[in-house]
Structures are given as C-alpha cells and as structure tokens.
Amino acid sequence: MTSGNNRSKCVSPLQSRLQGRDALATIILAVIAVFISALPITARADDASRLKELDAYWADVSRSVREGDFEGYVATCHAEGVLVSGVKKMSQPLSQALARWKHEFADTKAGKMKANVEFKFSQRMGDETTALETGIFLYSTIAPDGKVVKEYIHFEELLVKRDGWKVLMEYQKSKATPEEWDALK
Fold it and tell me: How high is the pLDDT of residue 138?
C-alpha cells in the first residue's frame, strides 16, 4: 500500500505530456513577448531617425524663407505638390503658389523685407518614406517701414521621401492664435 504522498508524485503519461505542452507554451509565449517588447524600441528608433531628417527639412524650409532662397525653397517641394487653403477655400498646384510667392523671396534676398517661418508640431506620423506633419506655423514679415506682420496658421503637411523629403500636399487649414502657438512645444 502506498501513502497519499507517494500517489501525488506519480505522474501519468497523459499528465506528463500536458505538463510538457504547458512548458512549451510558456516558452513560446515568452519568446513572443520578447519580440513584441522589442518592436516599440525599433519603431522608436525608426521614428527618431525620420524625425531627425524631418527636423532638418523644416530647418531648410525656414532657412530658405529667411534668406530669400527661392530655389532652395522650391527644392523642398514635390513637382506634383498641391497647396490647399482652408482659409481661402481653395486648392491649387503648389507650382502656382510658388510663382505667386516668388516676389517675396526676391524682396527678402534683396533686403527689401525680412521674412521668417517657424514650425511647431502637435502630431508627427510616418514611416521611412512618408510623413504627415500637423501643427502651427508662424510666418512673419518686417516691411521696409518696420511694419511687422505675423500669421499663425494651423497646417498639415504630407511629405514623401524622393531624393530627400518633399512636400506633396500643404494644407493650410485655418488661422491660429498666439495662445495656440504658445501651447505647442
């Protein structure tokens, strides 16, 4: 006769297989958990790289406006780019808007006026070849008579990476306020 303690130590072949499957399932789940936990790290690294590139893109846009470098600004735009204006309730090829803006670049370059553009973002999404940047830009000018004009605009910018980042669609959604600007980082 065996005692109750001895019986608990006896394992049937069925119990042994079930324990083996439990151990295998535990191992598989652990491996999956490791891979899943590594994904956000990889995504954050990819995001960091993309955001660094996009920060350089925005710095170049700002530099082009500040220096009156029309060709430099055009180089940040996709040939098939579109400008959408929520304020004016219209859209048009970006090439038409560029033709309209060209004189301000020339005046800035000639020192007849000063221009500057700054960007703050509320959302930045994308992958290695596409990006959607959302936020507010502040476009400011100083005329020869010293008159300062500041325009705060909510915007969304759709970019593609084709020999560098290029704007495919600029959506100037609506006017923003200085308070909204200050609230963004």
Answer: 98
